[in-house]
């Protein structure tokens, strides 16, 4: 059996995955669930998957704000990794398939970004490689819903930033104000919340929203 035939057999062995984890905004398939679903068949067929990080980038954003009378600071780390996922037929190691892949991870502490990005990359790669059907509310479906409205939302957030700065407020105070008012980050705002903030800014003029 060649490497392509083995991949087809793995694909046949996982007809569907039920979501098994619950997040703040959606239910999703965990990495351990996805790996466990294919590992047994991979072992049976002597099929290896070797991930390799060939590039990475780290972005950090620090927000300083005051809570009560105490100054606070939060740093968010966004890690991007470029991967090569290589399938190897262990019974004929010269049979290999190399597939470029990309992943990302967000972390507050700073030391787990690469691990999160690599783990998420492995999970999404396996789901896409084997065309595994998952629940309508999994992470990928949720991202698809965001993509449909991303243009409208990006434009609304751009208008919010413009209104804030135009009213004379420092740019780095916007995110703490959003956290104080809605308890979330700027990217988590819905369109109604953005509209409310813009209305507050325009109504109060030089006063904080």
TrEMBL record:
<protein>
    <recommendedName>
        <fullName>ERF superfamily protein</fullName>
    </recommendedName>
</protein>
<dbReference type="Pfam" id="PF04404">
    <property type="entry name" value="ERF"/>
</dbReference>
<dbReference type="InterPro" id="IPR007499">
    <property type="entry name" value="ERF_bacteria_virus"/>
</dbReference>
